[in-house]
Description:
This protein is α+β, with helices and mostly antiparallel strands.
Amino acid sequence: PVRPKDHQSKTLAFRLELGEEFYGLLLATDRDFKFTRRRIDFLDRAARQIALAFQNEHMRDIEQQRVQTDQELSLARRIQKTFLPDKLPEIQGYQLAVEWKTARQVGGDFYDIFKLGENKYGLTVADVSDKGLPASLYMTVSRTLLRAVSREFISPARALERVNQLLQLDSAQSFFVTLVYAILDTASGELTYA
C-alpha cells in the first residue's frame, strides 16, 4: 500500500499488479481514517485478487484470439489446397508424384500440372519468398497468372516474362517467386522449360 504524505487524507492506494503487469490502482477511503492493520491486509489481498482477475481476463482474450487465428489459418490452408491439383493426370509413359508440406499451416510452396492442348502439359514447381499467409496469397496470384498466361505463349520463357511483368505492376512488397515452368509434349517427348 502507498500511504499519502498528508496524514489528514483518508485515502489509501493499492497497486493492482502481478509480476511486471500493472493494471491500475485500488483506492480505499474511510471518513474517520480508521485503517487498521487488518483492513489494510484485507485491501492488499483484495488488490491482488482484482489484479489476478484482470490478468485472467487478459489471458482469456489472448486464448480466444489464438483460437480464432488457428481457425482462420486452417480455413486458409483448405483454400490454398484447392489451388493445388487434387489428382495428377495420368500421362502414358510418365510417372508423376508430388508431396506438399509447408513450414507453417500455409505457405508459398506450390506445384501445378495442367493440360495445354492435345499432347501438351504445363508443369510448375515454385516457391514464394517468405512464409505464412502473405506468401500463400502471393502464391495464389502467381499460380493464377501463370495458368492464364500459359495459354497465350508456347514458350515457357515468354510466359514467365509476361507473368513477371504482371506481378511487378502491383507488387508493393518485396516478394518474389522462384519457379520452374516446363511444357511437356507427350507426342515428341520434348520437355521445354524455363
